[in-house]
Specification:
alpha+beta; Beta-lactamase Inhibitory Protein, Chain:B, domain 1; 2 helices; 6 strands; about 35% helix; globular
Length: about 100
């Protein structure tokens, strides 16, 4: 019984850490009045932010959706790389050029 409880605590702890790391890795940015974040529609991003400076086909996801990388910037001194899957922002990366 104690082993099961201990294993449950370890799993919950590790799950919590992985969610925290994902949140730290994801950047966000503002285009006009739009706050670009994970889960937002790529069409909405393109409408508000304009055409990306570059679109790159990456491949297919595990669910057979097209993966693309969209490059925006510099904005506020940062470049942003959006990973688009199934028409939505899956991941946002940022860096200073």
């Amino acid at each position: 019984m104690q082993k099961l409880f201990l294993m449950s605590l370890i799993v919950l702890f590790l799950f919590g850490i992985s969610n925290t790391v994902d949140a730290i890795d994801d950047a966000s940015f503002r285009c006009g009045n739009l706050f670009v974040k994970r889960g937002i529609s790529g069409a909405v991003v393109e409408y508000n932010c304009g055409e990306p400076m570059k679109k790159e086909y990456v491949g297919m996801s595990e669910r057979k959706n097209t993966l693309e990388k969209w490059y925006y910037g510099p904005m506020g001194g940062y470049m942003y790389i959006l990973t688009i899957s199934a028409g939505s922002v899956l991941k946002i990366e940022s860096f200073r050029p």
